[in-house]
RNA sequence: GGGAGUAUAGCUCAGCUGGUUCAGAGCGCCUGCCUUACAAGCAGGAGGUCACUGGUUCGAACCCUGUUACUCCCACCA
């Protein structure tokens, strides 16, 4: 069979992914094995794959595939998140394109369209994940609004309400005037913005004295109900008990004194607008001020007046009614300037809250919302992270986590939307009051209404729940652990093993899942949290649609192969570090796939000797030590890889694997055992090579699932050929069909580190250094690698087992041990061993001398520093014996080396 | 304003308990090679005052002071 010289990932990747799915290799059922569970951070159902997902899911897949190969029952559960605000926005947009206004629809009609949209366009991202090679158990695909998840959410709401942990109250919330809903504190992004600070004149009622108040939001003066100064501020003591007139509005408001005011800021006088600022609201509560909400929900002015409005106030309210808040700001300033009520305007930079979803400027707004009491939940969630029941990788995120939980505020969970779990609260009018009934469904609510209030005239709360109120149950609800807490699945799969997520949702999601896990299972939801970095572009900017600096992951996969992209991402992504992504790192991954592919081509091309006599004994001897060395080396690197995985150092584990394959296997091992042109390879070495190569594919498989599966299969075919009478007709052998239909690298056992012999490794290193020395000499003398040379070795410390390798790979004629220096030869040192290479051509004596002198100077300087240390009494007395012994060894080595260099210099004459 | 983190080669990063090979790796770069697995390759090579400062120590990239720069989180002084 002919193999192309370039590896083509496309067909290979498609073929194997289909194979894995068809064979159900990703599917998990509870059994006697140790479970390894990962739940996917559910992407928005509206989402498309971006680089952050690529990184995150690559990491999950690596861990899941490895766990599976370690003999665990790996279960990676995929799903999507209904993302109420984002999805509702998309549906509204789609409706608008069809000429349908959302407001013309009933709730049920709207929901029908939304579900249609979800079925048609939602979940693209899950299909894209398949291209990446994600080994999710697709049979378990869930959605935060599917029946099980929906019902779980409702049950939890009812339960927490009954426990007194959910309440409804009127609070200042973050209002998104575009999405027309409240959002939680965590969904507000503060951005620096360059605005103005406006200094406005407030005249004292009935006098022509005035004070100046600084504000960034002059449009809110329509809702001013006081001006506040610091009680100790001597500039304003004369104002005590006075009233001032809100400029342009004509409303007289009291001057109040409170220590909240910062005397240094602006003029030290603060206007109070209780309806539109959280701090003003608090002051308003304290002093019993009227709260005038001047905005409509969409951020336009509503023309509402305070109690006992003046004529001026009526006019002002009417004048601005219907205007957008920002247009109003400009208009008011023009009007005030005309009236001479503006003292000055300064440039000012401050932080303005924006909605995470719509980017609209958040409007603090007073409204009735539902909240979760966080205090008790937070305490438990903090404890399990503090005591390392849950470990964070990297651990530095514990600080962030602690800080948030120690300063936690109640969680606003109601959203003024339709797409989501509708809050299971019903209102009933009884005894002249509105009573609240919280129940699992309408029927129950009605029953309660009839029992308690004698009526079934109930109406359900219009709001839905925050999407995170579904997400926080994810590890529980995926296994139906809320509705059926004793079912086999939840008992088997919970707690999950590792959670892989980005640090920006540590509060939204991670912390709250921990709370829910503790509340509903008395157990943490996962043992480890791996925080990925944020994917940035070359310039360090976050990747975003607006900037257009994010490559399309699918295009990348087409270009470099999923394996190539996976490897590129992982190589530069240590836990918690941001990943400055540059497409070119995928090249390294693609090149690596190609390298492995070509190693396969080489191995497959070898003819296997029919009998031992057909191969030279010299080559057989080399092969023997080569196999021995490669086995030791593999064990050594496996130890490293295992350690890296234990510490979640995935990029290091990958790099170690990469070097093991490229350097140790391809550059050294294969070169050692490679038969001379036209020669066959002995059967034992060939078998060993296939075995080693196969195991290398296993080691690499979690990182590069496709290429390793492909090559592993081809290697098994080679293996089969060795065992059957008619290798040329392997494809008709029954085992061949079985191999291709029943076996997968995914089910093989990951090789484990075993005891390895350091001596073999050290002997090989000496041989490698000698080869490098000889090559170096050739290269520096401009000689062709084809020029064969002899090597004389003096005072060698290695066993010489690899001399055959030195001859083969160094193109050395003979390796001979000598007792004294060799005249007329170039020399180099391997440790304290002197190596001489006689040259047929004339040696440049001066150049050699210069080189030797430089080496000598370095060695002498090194010795001097060692001697200084050893001559220092404090060191000899203070340092541990082992350290001193090391210094003595350094001294001996340096002395040997110096003596040798001097001898070589003398030999030059 | 409060807190955390980072600073090591051109780039991205390792460097564990202070002590051989402590100054490393990959990529990139330079030189020479189309050597029949691979030019997506092979062989060889050059590159760093470990941000700066002071200290602790026999000994510091590593521990402590301070400075500077960058990043992130929290707060939201109008």
Describe this structure in words.
There is one protein chain. The protein is elongated, with a radius of gyration of 38 Å. With about 900 residues, it is an alpha/beta fold. It has 28 helices and 29 strands. The chain is about 45% helix and about 15% strand. The strands form nine sheets. Strands 7, 8, 9, 10, 11, 12 and 13 form a seven-stranded mixed β-sheet that branches. Strand 10 (about 245) and strand 11 form a beta hairpin. It starts with 8 loop residues before the first helix and ends with a helix. Helix 18 (about 585-605) runs parallel beside helix 20. The structure holds one RNA strand of 78 nucleotides.
Which descriptors would you attach to this protein?
alpha/beta; 909 residues; seven-stranded mixed β-sheet; 46% helix; RNA-binding; four-stranded antiparallel β-sheet; 29 strands
Indicate the overall shape: elongated
- Structural class category: alpha/beta
Count of β-strands: 29
Strand portion: 15-25%
Largest sheet: 7 strands, mixed
* First-residue to last-residue Cα separation: 61 Å
Question: Mean pLDDT across all residues, rounded?
Answer: 91
Radius of gyration: 38 Å
Describe what is shown at a glance:
This protein has 28 helices and 29 strands. By secondary structure, the protein is of the alpha/beta class.
Write the topology of this structure:
Blueprint: H1 9-22, E1 35-39, H2 51-69, E2 73-77, E3 79-80, H3 84-97, H4 107-121, H5 124-132, E4 142-143, H6 147-162, E5 166-176, E6 181-183, E7 188-204, E8 210-215, E9 226-229, E10 243-245, E11 252-257, E12 269-272, H7 278-287, H8 311-320, H9 325-338, E13 342-355, E14 363-372, H10 375-386, E15 391-393, H11 397-406, E16 411-412, E17 414-415, E18 425-430, E19 433-438, H12 442-453, E20 458-460, E21 464-465, H13 468-471, H14 474-477, H15 488-493, E22 496-501, H16 506-521, E23 526-531, E24 535-536, H17 553-571, E25 579-580, H18 584-605, H19 617-646, H20 650-673, H21 683-700, H22 705-723, H23 734-742, H24 758-780, E26 789-794, H25 803-810, E27 812-818, E28 825-830, E29 833-838, H26 845-871, H27 873-878, H28 881-908
Parallel strand pairs: 1-2, 3-4, 9-11, 15-23, 22-23, 24-25, 26-27
Antiparallel strand pairs: 5-6, 5-14, 7-8, 7-10, 7-13, 9-12, 10-11, 14-16, 17-21, 18-19, 18-20, 26-29, 28-29
Helix pairs in contact: 1-22, 2-17, 3-4, 10-11, 10-16, 17-18, 18-20, 18-22, 19-20, 19-21, 19-24, 20-21, 21-22, 22-23, 24-25, 26-28
This protein binds one RNA strand of 78 nucleotides through strand 8, strand 12, helix 7, strand 13 and helix 11.
